[in-house]
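re the bet — no i am not wrong, look at it urself. input seq straight from the record:
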Amino acid sequence: MSTDIDIQRPAAEVFDYIADFENNPLWQGGMETCMWTSDGPIAVGSTYEQVAKFMGRPILTTFKVTALEPGRSISIESIVSTFPIQVTRNVEPSGDGSCRVTANVAGQPPLLMRLMPGMNWMVKRSVTQDYARLKELLERC
């Protein structure tokens, strides 16, 4: 699943914000906490843990940075989770001081969740709303 959004902020600022995963609870719905479990600076192999709620249930996930192009692209994947997921976020300057953020999300929810009617739609809607919150938050600064 992929989503993209234009944000009226410089690409470098937006990338720095979304690459600091401790900011996730500020713009991602259901996110409760997020903290680095490895020392900085961020690099391939860096790890962090997050606690989120999905359908009323806590989900603890440990992520690892799997690819990093500073200022432009970051990829992460869950290494400990009940909901395996991979995410790549790209930030491209638009030339007018704004940028386009693209997120590609792949994962395999547990079988019970996959069987629920409308699950793909709910995930897509949730991710789209998250990036709309990110846009609102960053453009307000």
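see?? The mean pLDDT is 90. told u. also The chain is about 30% helix and 40% strand. so pay up
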